[in-house]
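Handout, tutorial session.
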Amino acid sequence: LSDVFLDKPAVMEKLDVLFDGYKDIVPTAFIFTGNYTSRPFGKTPDDVTRLQTAFQGLTRLIFKYKSLVMRSKWIFSRGPSDAGGPLVFPQ
């Protein structure tokens, strides 16, 4: 999955549907590539809080699905507008 804007309620609702669909047929891994917020990181003072809140929401959503937590790998890679190190992206 890419460009999963975790700060958008509609995206979180669709992730809930996706995870619910996989709860009985558990995939080996979920791979997320950013961007993770709808606004580029570093443009406003509240960006760190916004990103933390977004990932906390994702964590709560994932933990609704114990089979996915226990049996799937979760891989996250940042996008060009996310916080982080060198500008090297897998996309």
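The second record follows below. Compare its token runs with those of the first.
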Amino acid sequence: WISDEHRYGLISTVRRCWTLKGHCPTAPVQMKYQWGYVYGAAEVLLGAVEFLYLPTVSLDNSRRFLEQVVATDPEAIHIIFWDQAGFHQKPDDPHLPKQVRVIPLPPYSPELNAMEKVWDAVKGHVSNAVWETLDAMESAITEVLKPFWEFPERVGSLLGDSWLTRGVSIFLELRKAII
């Protein structure tokens, strides 16, 4: 699994947009200080995804998300790649679910995490708009996320031919040779 979380909130995000030459686009802005987080993980081999909306990030919430990932296949060992944020369990954390192995990504390297592409699509969908409530914003975010759990091949296109997919392929080939 490759995992990450995304913060969203009612403070408007303004992003670039296309327009006709000579036209100056406008975007509505509001400054409401409410936010939430969505945790996400994509399974590299089968293309499964898991998402969880939570009000904040913490070690307890990260553990709760890992338990959700484990529930997808309780008998399997789940290898989780994620960054080294302070609210993520470390590989030697005794509170990790027993079916989870954590591999930390290097610091300051979001380009290694394919989930960032999902969050970029989310930002593109919810930017340049005013959202009255977090529930309305979560509904819009869910519209972006839904195709990933409905069509596992979308996860494969998200991961593409990356360091992760190549590494998993090599690992599986070596494993076949040993067995």
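Points raised in discussion: The longest strand covers residues 2-9.
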